[in-house]
């Protein structure tokens, strides 16, 4: 099945002229014909990656486009991607404007992007710059956080015959490249979604097996397995599946710099592990669908956990059992899913207001929850 974010990306590509159909789990894509003439409206929804990938692509295609955003997206950072696109030939309405309008033709040259705001800026430029006539360089300032996502982008480009040359704090991109068409690719199982069930296995009372995972994946979030082992969970892996059950869980130290999306699920495990778990290097969680350091803290604390936010992380002191209660998903899919996972260590029921937030990345989340023995009912 797809999700709201995938549908948004497919919808934007369709708006630019691609022909896309989805049937039986298979996307068929006929590429965007060029030039892209006339005004186009791209509905990016609440998807940061869709916005930050499609804006540079629309600029590279020289499209006259309006990108409409939903939820918290208009206030999530777009600078300095935004300034770099303007200084390379595009006219774009000020960040925060909704819709965001772009016109003009992007040109090659040097693009400078700090590595610690969002890897999506860098991935978006990597998708777009090979389409330009001139050559380009992306210069990265400082360390890159969420680096595995950039490696996944590079692998996807390579699969379609597009070359990006990595250098020291720099990526070199020749112009006039063409994406190969007529390829068949298989999309890997999503470790970020799997992480919720693997964490549920670590705190719950039974064994949970997730299948369809590639252990040699480039996805940074496959690191959840090692982290759960460090917590003391029982883990078995092999043949594309991972099985997790509860062990004697002990608090640990976690650097979230490359795997920010794991933090909500891992915080649920930390809440049930004996001793203190510290999450570090997680400042970028404040600029996700919600301020996730704040919303993870509020959510778990409302259910009885001992948790505090720091400037760039969390400190969680585990308890054998939590209480239960009502929490808000804060419009954030990963908060809704983390609350459902933590319900397995709550004595009382957990009510999640706005649980439909899961549709952003995982519409089947609650039906999978029942397959694993969870009980839920929808209320209005
Ligand atoms: O490239 C991507 O699809 C993503 C990159 C990461 O974002 P940041 O680089 O902004 O941390 C990740 O958190 C996000 O959920 C998805
Ligand atoms: C992909 C995600 O969000 P976004 O693209 O909106 O940053 C996410 O949080 O999983």
Automatic annotation (TrEMBL):
Keywords: Amino-acid biosynthesis, Aromatic amino acid biosynthesis, Cytoplasm, Signal, Transferase
Protein name, entry field: 3-phosphoshikimate 1-carboxyvinyltransferase
Entries under Pfam families matching the protein: EPSP_synthase
HAMAP family: EPSP_synth (MF_00210)
This protein's record includes keyword Transferase: yes
Organism expressing this protein natively: Sporobacter termitidis DSM 10068
Subunit structure: Monomer.
Principal location listed in the UniProt entry: cytoplasm
GO biological process, one term: amino acid biosynthetic process
Family: Belongs to the EPSP synthase family.
Enzyme Commission code(s) on record: 2.5.1.19
Class in the EC hierarchy, top level: transferase
Pathway connected to this protein: Metabolic intermediate biosynthesis; chorismate biosynthesis; chorismate from D-erythrose 4-phosphate and phosphoenolpyruvate: step 6/7
Binding-site residues for 3-phosphoshikimate, renumbered to this chain: 118-120, 146, 261, 288
Subcellular location: Cytoplasm
Domain Enolpyruvate transferase positions: 1-367
Catalytic activity: 3-phosphoshikimate + phosphoenolpyruvate = 5-O-(1-carboxyvinyl)-3-phosphoshikimate + phosphate
Residues annotated to bind phosphoenolpyruvate: 48, 76, 120, 292, 334, 360
Catalytic residues (positions): 261
Any single GO CC term annotated in Swiss-Prot or TrEMBL for this entry: cytoplasm
Job description of the protein: Catalyzes the transfer of the enolpyruvyl moiety of phosphoenolpyruvate (PEP) to the 5-hydroxyl of shikimate-3-phosphate (S3P) to produce enolpyruvyl shikimate-3-phosphate and inorganic phosphate.
Gene Ontology terms, MF aspect: 3-phosphoshikimate 1-carboxyvinyltransferase activity
